Amino acid sequence: MNVEEHFAVAEDGTRIWWRAAGQGSPAVVLSDGIACAGYIWRHLFPALAARGRVLHWNYRGHGKSESPRDVDRVSLLDCVGDLFAVLDAAGEPSAVLAGHSMGVQVCLEAHRQAPARARALVLICGAPGHTLDHFHGRRFLSTVFPYIRELVLTAPGLARWAFRKALSTELALQVGLWFEVNRHLLPREDLERYLADAAEVDLEVYVRMLSTAARHDASAHLPNAKIPVLVVAGEKDTWTPFSLSSSMHAAIPGSELLVLPAGTHTGPLEHPELVALRLEKFLSERVVALPGAGGPPPRRAAVRRSRAP
């Protein structure tokens, strides 16, 4: 598989890393969850490249993308603007937008901001908004997060050291294997890599970005998503419980729902074949290739931005 790597330039000058493989239209663009750098697509990226063109990118301050030139430019709307910059750089007027976790919010907001750029939506293990309100079906995380955020922004060096140390311990791995993922479906080495990527994220960017994602809500837009939509849900997801995906599916006209048996928030790693086959069926049946695709991108849509708190 031949993979090309590039950088797109965001509105504020931040360089956003992206990669591409395969040929064909419409392309599928993969958007990560927050604090992730793309390992969740380990199996899906090559599977999609075998059938057509697939793109994947990193959020600002994540993976190979630069930290933002302006520390306040980390809102979810900034992420949407970066997604459009990647589409422009890749020469894709429109694409199938697929997102995992917070990437679900990015995809929904991108459709709300510029409907013509989304051929279809694939919403994987995510919710339309209020990211922190649903962990294990409780609001505990949203209650304590403001204190965590204040600690990180007050002592970023110490917080970064403690964060990386904590994620690299055997305790963190065992907690994840026993309480957050399905240890019978997810290999230990996959969770190790998943946590390693999270440990490398710019922690200040992470808490500022998570603050905006926690306030963002695209629920009111769901009835307006009148394009092909596939919702993928983990039956045992503790971060975005199955009920959220079920409600999102019910609110989107004509959407389809794939339930991953005993799957958790890392469903694409736990059920790689099932996700790939179902997505292939969805693309083949619901998303028709555009004749003469690959022309110049449309004028970049203006994004209504808000600054981080």
Quickly describe the structure.
With 309 residues, the protein is an alpha/beta fold. 40% of the residues lie in helices and 15% in strands.
Written description of the protein model:
With 309 residues, this protein is an alpha/beta fold. It has one domain (3-286): Rossmann fold (3-Layer(aba) Sandwich). Helices cover 40% and strands 15% of the residues. The chain has eleven helices and eight strands. It has helices at 44-49, 76-90, 102-113, 140-154, 156-167, 170-180, 188-199, 203-215, 242-251, 267-270, 272-286; strands at 3-9, 15-21, 28-31, 54-57, 95-100, 118-124, 229-234, 256-260. An eight-stranded mixed sheet has the order 1-2-4-3-5-6-7-8, with helices on both faces. Helix 1 (44-49) links the parallel strand 3 and strand 4 (54-57). Helix 2 crosses helix 3 (102-113), helix 4 (140-154) packs across helix 5 and helix 5 runs antiparallel to helix 7 (188-199). The longest helix is centred in the N-terminal third of the chain and has 15 residues, at 76-90. The radius of gyration is 18 Å and the shape is globular. It starts with a strand and ends in a 23-residue tail after the last helix. Residues 290-301 and 305-309 have low confidence and may be disordered.
